[in-house]
Design goal:
The complex is a heterodimer of chains A (161) and B (591). With 161 residues, chain A is of the alpha+beta class. Chain A is built from seven helices and five strands; from the N terminus they run βααααβααβββα. Chain B is globular, with a radius of gyration of 25 Å. The chains are: A alpha+beta (161), B alpha/beta (591).
Chain lengths: 161, 591
């Protein structure tokens, strides 16, 4: 009888080890480590969290506790084009929910999901700091402001590759 | 000491600076209710997140209500613990908690022992005005522990013991807002995590969110089954705690009543784990002496310190966290498993019952023992040496189910030949007891002389890490350490890893104060005086025994003559020793 085996590619394992080492394997840097790791992988699957826990010498439950607590971290892969809809106060009163509904019906997925072809994903967040442009969404970091539901189809068409 | 004066509920009080309002009020006989706040005074177990807000009080001049458990007293502070505002706020907090709590108190394993239930009753909660979403988690069973997250109130006591006290970290808070709950990583079943099944989470949980796996029904069915015979063993710590479940004062020694109750319940053979504790000393002591002799003769490869291996949570701990050091602990099985191996071989043969027709049950102060008896290496052709284990609390329920008036029950004796024991065995129930029992025997075996003083006071006590030097004349000054709490055990393991561990012999128990506060014992609800009374009772029971050294137990001497041959001999090695597994998480790297 032996302990659990965690499968991960050697390259990914090395990458995470290096990230942790760059923060001196300091458990106090957990959030920074997770940011760097998510930047690279796009998300934080279980095996990635296991390696982080191992390198920082903390229980994996602690890592998962942080990942599940902060909405910025995700355990689901994102689409090639990651759409984030702002539901902050200003965007919300300017009709952000209608924008979200338009995206959902256009892409036939819910927030937190990825289209079956892996192309688009929808997430919601609270305020991107562009309240003057409300309602706002971003696609891979590019900001689209003063949105109305009718514009959505056209914007998505820009990504028809 | 810097003393400050303040007023609580119109009465003046003087307390040292730094005292919380809660503690100051307690001194005055004012009992502010608490839920998340938990402390086992002097036993290193605590949780003070100030999170549940059940203890809020009014501080005159302060805008918000103050949580009494984490708010320090200030000079001239005026506190009202029972103002209408404080009472209403406390009620609202409780009502909100109960609005997402299953209303199944009658069927709940914690019913009657639940702190949430008690506070709701004391506060006179009669309806829950808030109707909203309810948590919908699935109940999870492991070999030892049942988790029902729907009953979790996020007090996080379990998280504190798991992370800070045991340094295991199997469960903790996840998610945020309404879905926030105490869970394993990724919601995995406990068995797939690094949980060691110590069960201290169960011992401190104020509600029914964490409880032990219940085998009382199984016992009743087995006793009623005419095709099998049943035998039972009772661990040392059970006899100083069970009385609490029947209104007897903490520290009552009820050994004779337990034997009588088990006979009244209908077990065919009522034996004593103390018998196999004496057997453990013979095996573990002999192994230890062997290692010390090897060390003194210059053997560089001998594994020193030898560590005890009686505590099943500790065994799980080194298999999961330090498999590379698993040659240090003794290979001796725990008393529970030594008993099981003997009863299903020697005893089954003696009375002519096939081993699978002899159901062997143990009563333990422990929930990790439930996991231990399910281990594959403790089975012969699938038949476990110990079929299952119940806790002290389950035994109390069984006694009640069987209509036995425990408090007035005349005492009885354990059956022979696995029932006689010594004082050395009963102290296994307290931290330092295994060490002391081993020293009593090792000293006499090594020196061939009678101990001048039988009590090794230097290894007793309730500090988490204790060390002593025991001179064995003309042989060695034996350096020993006794630890409880796996965080303290981790300290020793790190010393061994670094090559600077100064000890020859180390005893480890996972629970606070050893088995007396095992996770299967009656709930103490943070009252350390209960644990201390059990501790005192263990040593009282030892003093009252006519024989106090394991090697003097006549039934132990007889079984070596009749069956085992000699300690650490071929037969005893086969039946009474075990081996450990590497259960640490491994990364399988793919190219």
């Amino acid at each position: 009888m032996c302990g659990p085996q965690i499968k991960i590619s050697e390259a990914n394992y090395r990458f995470i080890k290096d990230v942790c080492a760059s923060f001196n394997n300091n458990p106090g840097e957990l959030i920074n480590v997770l940011h760097k790791t998510q930047e690279h992988f796009g998300y934080l699957p279980e095996e990635v969290q296991q390696v982080v826990a191992d390198c920082l010498g903390i229980p994996v439950g602690r890592v998962y506790g942080v990942v599940s607590f902060y909405s910025f971290f995700t355990m689901k892969p994102k689409g090639k084009y990651a759409i984030s809809v702002c539901l902050g106060t200003a965007c919300y009163v300017k009709g952000a929910e209608k924008i979200l509904d338009a995206l959902k019906s256009e892409l036939k997925i819910k927030e937190g999901e990825v289209t079956p072809d892996g192309k688009f994903s929808i997430d919601v967040l609270r305020c991107v700091g562009a309240c003057g442009l409300a309602p706002v969404m971003t696609i891979n970091g590019k900001t689209y402001g003063r949105l109305v539901p009718e514009k959505i189809k056209g914007i998505l068409a820009e990504y028809a590759d | 000491m810097d003393l400050i004066k303040l007023t609580i509920d119109n009465r003046e009080v003087e307390v040292p600076r730094g005292t919380t309002i809660l503690k100051a009020a307690q001194q005055m006989g004012i009992n502010i209710p608490t839920l998340c706040n938990f402390e086992l005074d002097g036993l290193a177990l605590k949780n003070h997140p100030g999170g549940c807000r059940v203890c809020v009080v009014e501080v005159v001049g302060r805008r918000n209500l103050a949580p009494a458990c984490i708010t320090e007293c200030m000079p001239d502070m005026v506190v009202k613990t029972n103002s209408l505002r404080a009472i209403n706020a406390r009620k609202t907090v409780l009502e909100l908690m109960l609005s997402d709590h299953p209303n199944d108190c009658l069927q709940c394993p914690k019913s009657g022992k639940c702190e949430l239930q008690t506070i709701a009753a004391d506060m006179g909660i009669r309806e829950i005005p808030y109707k909203g979403q309810m948590s919908q988690y699935k109940k999870e069973m492991s070999p030892s522990i049942v988790r029902d997250a729907n009953k979790c109130i996020m007090c996080r006591r379990c998280e504190s013991v798991c992370h800070e006290y045991q340094s295991v970290g199997a469960i903790g808070a996840v998610e945020r807002g309404f879905p926030a709950v105490v869970s394993t990583a990724f919601g995995e079943p406990l068995i797939n995590t690094n949980c060691v099944f110590c069960g201290q989470c169960v011992a401190v949980c104020p509600t029914g969110a964490l409880s032990e796996v219940d085998h009382t029904g199984r016992i009743l069915r087995d006793i009623a089954n005419p095709d099998v015979k049943t035998c039972v063993q009772v661990a040392p710590a059970v006899r100083v705690a069970l009385g609490e479940e029947f209104g007897m004062p903490a520290g009552s020694i009820v050994t004779g009543k337990i034997a009588a109750a088990l006979k009244a319940i209908g077990f065919d053979y009522v034996f004593d784990t103390d018998w196999s504790a004496d057997l453990t000393i013979m095996e573990e002591g002999t192994e230890a002496i062997g290692r010390f002799k090897a060390l003194l003769s210059g053997d560089k490869n001998v594994k020193i310190p030898i560590m005890t291996s009686c505590c099943p949570a500790w065994v799980n701990f080194y298999e999961k966290f330090y498999p590379e050091l698993s040659e240090y602990p003794s290979t001796a099985k725990s008393p529970q498993q030594m008993f099981g191996a003997t009863v299903k071989s020697y005893f089954a043969e003696k009375v002519g019952i096939p081993r699978e027709k002899l159901i062997s049950v143990s009563v333990m102060p422990c929930v990790a023992k439930k996991y231990e008896c399910e281990r594959d290496e403790f089975k012969v052709n699938g038949d476990p040496d110990v079929n299952y284990s119940i806790t002290t609390r389950e035994l109390a329920r069984l006694i009640k189910i069987c209509n036995i008036d425990f408090a007035n029950l005349p005492e009885a004796e354990f059956d022979s030949p696995l029932g006689a024991s010594t004082g050395a065995a009963v102290i296994f129930g307290a931290t330092g007891g295994v060490m002391e029992a081993a020293l009593r025997t090792a000293y006499e075996v090594i020196t061939g002389k009678t101990l001048p003083k039988i009590d090794f006071e230097e290894v007793r006590g309730l500090d988490g890490i204790r060390e002593a030097t025991i001179p064995i004349p003309d042989v060695v000054d034996l350096k020993v350490a006794v630890v409880y709490g796996l965080k303290n055990a981790r300290v020793i393991m790190e010393q061994i890893k670094a090559g600077n561990c100064p000890y020859h012999f180390v005893e480890v128990m996972a629970c606070p104060g050893g088995c007396i506060d095992g996770a299967g014992q009656p709930y103490h609800h943070g009252d350390a005086s209960i644990v201390k009374a059990r501790h005192a009772a263990i040593y009282k029971a030892d003093r009252e025994m006519p024989l106090r050294k394991s090697h003097e137990n006549p039934e132990i001497q007889a079984i070596y003559k009749e069956f085992y041959g000699q300690p650490c001999g071929e037969k005893s090695h086969h039946l009474l020793h075990t081996h450990y597994f590497d259960k640490k998480i491994k990364f399988d790297l793919e190219k």
